[in-house]
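Table S4 entry, Cellulose synthase-like protein D3.
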Amino acid sequence: MASNKHFSTSRSNLSNNSDVPEQGRPPVPSSVTFARRTSSGRYVSYSRDDLDSELGSAEFMNYTVHIPPTPDNQPMDPSISQKVEEQYVSNSMFTGGFNSATRAHLMDKVIETETNHPQMAGAKGSSCAIPGCDAKVMSDGRGQDLLPCECDFKICRDCFVDAVKTGGGICPGCKEPYKNTDLTDQADDNGQQRLQGLGGNGAKMERRLSLMKSTNKSALMRSQTGDFDHNRWLFETNGTYGYGNAFWTKDGNFGSGKDGDGDGMEPQDLMSKPWRPLTRKLKIPAAIISPYRLLILIRIVVLALFLSWRIQHQNQDAIWLWGMSVVCELWFALSWLLDQLPKLCPINRATDLQVLKEKFEMPTPSNPTGKSDLPGLDIFVSTADPEKEPPLVTCNTILSILAADYPVEKLSCYVSDDGGALLTFEAMAEAASFANIWVPFCRKHVIEPRNPDSYFSLKRDPYKNKVKSDFVKDRRRVKREYDEFKVRINSLPDSIRRRSDAYHAREEIKAMKMQRQNRDDEPLEPVKIPKATWMADGTHWPGTWLTSASDHAKGDHAGIIQVMLKPPSDEPLHGVSEGFLDLTDVDIRLPLLVYVSREKRPGYDHNKKAGAMNALVRASAIMSNGPFILNLDCDHYIYNSEAMREGMCFMMDRGGDRLCYVQFPQRFEGIDPSDRYANHNTVFFDVNMRALDGLMGPVYVGTGCLFRRIALYGFDPPRSKEHTPGCCSCCFPRRKNKNRIPEENRALRMGDYDDEEMNLSLVPKKFGNSTFLIDSIPVAEFQGRPLADHPSIKNGRPPGALTIPRELLDATTVAEAIAVISCWYEDKTEWGSRIGWIYGSVTEDVVTGYRMHNRGWKSVYCVTKRDAFRGTAPINLTDRLHQVLRWATGSVEIFFSRNNALLASSKMKILQRIAYLNVGIYPFTSIFLIVYCFLPALSLFSGQFIVQTLNVTFLVYLLIISITLCLLALLEIKWSGITLEEWWRNEQFWLIGGTSAHLAAVLQGLLKVVAGVEISFTLTTKSGGDDVDDEFADLYMLKWTSLMIPPITIIMVNLIAIAVGFSRTIYSVIPQWSKLIGGVFFSFWVLAHLYPFAKGLMGRRGRTPTIVYVWSGLVAITISLLWVAINPPAGNTEIGGSFSFP
């Protein structure tokens, strides 16, 4: 049984290095201890004292690892100790949090089934044959046993070191001397020699250093002085470049030439090569965009003339009806203008993946081996409730990420489980185990899509374009394995429950035995033991238990980090022909996969999804520090395996360092063919977002977005222009700083600091007290720069700078990650207010993107030929309305907050500001829309109309406005690629949502602002994809919600009004047909838009549910009563005769 390991460190001393050490207090060393209890009862321990280094006169900070000589742990090579520690770190679950020690629990196994992949946590392997030691035998990158003696005696690393160091190099098995005691060469051929070449003890922290040598300066302030040109320094200094660092060669030669012959890249080499961009703009043809803009102008003029005419020509017979209609029409004109103006400059974009490969993955003088020079990428997957977000859906998303076409050593996947559920944890472990088969299969046969559930559900021919003879056999085997995988995932809830019940019964029996032993003849009281949830290795789950208890509830549990798949080796690792699949020429490495569940405690505001994302930002900065972050919802999987490369084309292109994020469109599966409730939302994603791309960029929509980490940290973009001060600048001009750093050389800068250096004492107040996190910021900034392969590229990095392998994981690093996901870490910092995802709104995505645009960053919309990502959307009417309610509520919150676009900075373009203003204003249209939907009924009931008479002027205005609207729609369809049906569905649901969810959102928003009532919204249910008779069964489910009341009322009132209007006109002595036609026309306009809503109330298609008879009866009774109540006029000249209600 595994035992727990403790970190005896305080939260303020988890970091290795600090630029500002506490005054009067020496650094407290952190101790990391691993222990395993063997079958004989002896503890085999591996210990390391991590001593804090102080920044002295040395040019670099030193990182020293001391391993005290003990009987169980003899001194060994530092690089070997790091590999040993990484092995145990990757097999340990780290937990900790507020007022609790950080523990590393060594996992014998993570799931019930056997795991074989060498990177997998809890991977099975041979045990050491030394008596009293059950540690794992040394293994290579493929997980094969490494046996140093020809007698094949199985021995672990530590016992082997003992035999070499203290046993005279004699094999404990055959008693013969070892022929080869060079453990480094045997243990790992992938990167070990390179690791030693980096300098032993100092290698880890040297890679954390900035580019510039600095003394007594924080890594944040590594920007150059005003007279230093960093871009020239890239070529004029002699050095080789590492993973975000400069390593100075001993011989002074530049580049990687074997004999110092200057094979490095020279400026003239760059000038002689034709430079090719990674992206290009595709402008809309003038034959489409010019008429489109002209029609917008014409419609604006016609609307102005029409509204002016309406104001001047009042309807004296029904001034109240005229007044309400004019007010509504004025608001509709303003709303249309806010929506239409940002569409003046739509553009399309294209990428060139071949150029990206040539620049970053082909041999060059600066990268002779052709290793990938692409920057690191951290992918975040967020989930909160395994009951509403099925684990199988999340597992398929994770598998599509692990199989993505991106350099394996540069890719990391972090899964945030905000519910802390063991079900999610074990499902993720099962996915990591199945990835051992799925990922090599995808790479071998170039599978698309790389979500196994979607791939095996394809209706097209799966054998098309497959040329390898063993594809059919491989596919059949993998399909069988996936079916078994699904069964294991679906059975996990019952398996966990049965296991927990069995362990609980065992604990009760033990407690009763102890009670009997302690009390001989006394009456025994019932034993009460908390019903815990147990993991596969027979220990308590540190997260949320099935039966909630103290420290184990959804809002009260420790932080958890488990490395499911440890970082891969630096070099490709090809499989073998033996076994399940023939993987002879296939790279079998898997990306880093980490399970994260942040700490939650009562009394803390955890800020929902935004808080979870910020916890992942900090944890990933400590563990992998990818300069780019891709966030995905648990139900949005990678449909195009090259999607990340397409996004990276924009980030690595000229001017890409000023991009804060690349937004991909959302595409959905499982939508009914008619898209009844406009779930695809194509008008927004293909019209509005393309149009915003021509301004400062699209808004952030919550998922499928590739972020620049530095932009999330709240820094200004490089080369941000100075903007004109306020209106008082003529009287109080801003004093110029003569020593100001040129903008192109200012890499890290926040808007509050225009001086040469930021105040170092304020850095912890912004980012927290983790110096690991602070030290990672400049490294991420440097790694995210474009290649300096052209004179016009400013703020670039040298080619080949990112080809050195990433650091090995150690216990201190993971312990620091535990610290930064604790509930107290964000206290008195700027996380959530300026840094990371922004708090205070249920639509944190829009606010986060707005803050970046407000600082001057730009974004890009990347529409790929093959959809980049696909997800699920609620097709049930109730779920869809609740989803729209959530979005609209967030928009109302934005309008009443400081994130209102009216308060935007001068760095934001006027049209971009109008677009964000429309985001906050559109829910208020519901007030006027509901009034306008009742106007036709009021007109028919009263016998009046919104105008005095239907004269020619009114009809001409109405005709021109309608025709221009239709022509604009046709041109939008032309340049965006959507269909007319999609446009019409969007118009229909605009009215459905506007008369239901948007109105409720306005009321909730006003309640929160005025009365302080908090808003709660329903988590959107994700479909589990189970086999059912009808895949669109959810579409016909009728779940009642109060949001349905206003649309139902509008439908019924308009139907009754049409009946009343016809009856009134028919029995009138002087029929007012013009007013009837006007009222009926607008009533039918309202009913046509509400048709999908009415159809949703009818239930399943092809059947006649009871509700149809109920509604038919109500309508028939209503019309009958109206008919009886209408008395034919007898010489009465009044309109409607003697009409009266009974």
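The two ends are 84 Å apart (CA to CA).
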